[in-house]
Amino acid sequence: MVTRVSFVAGERGEWTIESMRTIDGESLAAALRLARHEDDAFHRDRGVWTIDGVRSNDRYVTRDEKARLVASSPALGRADATCAALIPIRKTDEWWALTQDERRAIFEERSHHIAIGLEHVPAIAPRLYHCRDLGEPWDFLTWFEFADRDRGPFDDLVGKLRETEEWRYVSREVDIRLVRSQESL
Amino acid sequence: MVTRVSFVAGERGEWTIESMRTIDGESLAAALRLARHEDDAFHRDRGVWTIDGVRSNDRYVTRDEKARLVASSPALGRADATCAALIPIRKTDEWWALTQDERRAIFEERSHHIAIGLEHVPAIAPRLYHCRDLGEPWDFLTWFEFADRDRGPFDDLVGKLRETEEWRYVSREVDIRLVRSQESL
Prior knowledge:
The structure is a homodimer.
Chain A: E1 3-10, E2 15-24, E3 33-39, E4 49-55, H1 63-72, E5 83-91, H2 93-97, H3 100-110, H4 113-120, E6 125-130, E7 140-146, H5 151-162, E8 170-180
Antiparallel strand pairs in A: 1-3, 1-4, 2-3, 2-8, 5-7, 5-8, 6-7
Helix pairs in contact in A: 4-5
């Protein structure tokens, strides 16, 4: 079975929403907190809004790239990783009409998505969820955890990615920044 | 939004089940008929069993292969296509732990999956649905329609695929053969 995730925005959750910036397309409703529920089933509490996803197989990385990513990517939940970001992304129909070889060429050979990512591990802990096949209005959910001192490098990471050819195919993107909640609600 | 499909087995449906052969893994319960509902939503009638899927983006074909497939694949619903097959497939965890380049190499360079398929169009009309990310006990659903005179070539197609290296990674497969129902139930 696939592992499912529900990001539930509302009054409760381990993460306090610090800012929500709509980069492209429709925005998301404001909320105070965010909870990330990773489980066998989608979470039943739907809050102000919920985005569901699944941990699925890799789509673009080669074995060599994966070996480098696995070797240098930190785990989620590090004690000093008090900052996080949830960035849901939708790509255009034009992107999805491309074949695998065309998407891969844009993704890595021309946009260096993995290479840019590798410059920012081990500071930034990433996790990717897929939701296109679920019929969500998003294709991917990217989740990142990092220490307060690494806010700058994280801004640099997303800034570099947004300048790539790959990002011309992004039709909707919201950049949600979070800090670990001081007290549980 | 993705297009969804529900294959509902039971007492009703456009297709009469002629045979169900379990090739690998757990079998499916016997039923008389099968309906293929392709729609915006999954079908609510769940019958004896239902398998849901989605039409999603291509995963392995290159632009060149896709051009050849599109040029020679017939549409579903041809008047003389009175035979069909539904073959749901699940692959092993080992397959899904492979990276994209490794899966592609097994799929086409070593198993010639697309090349074998191209030998059998335009006689066989194929349609592929994905369901791994939906949490179904299947990864793909393959649907084929063909004329009565093309039963032999269809057997040849699935026989050749089952001999490939790719098929060593298939952990569950049921081969369901159907004929268009004479009367609607």
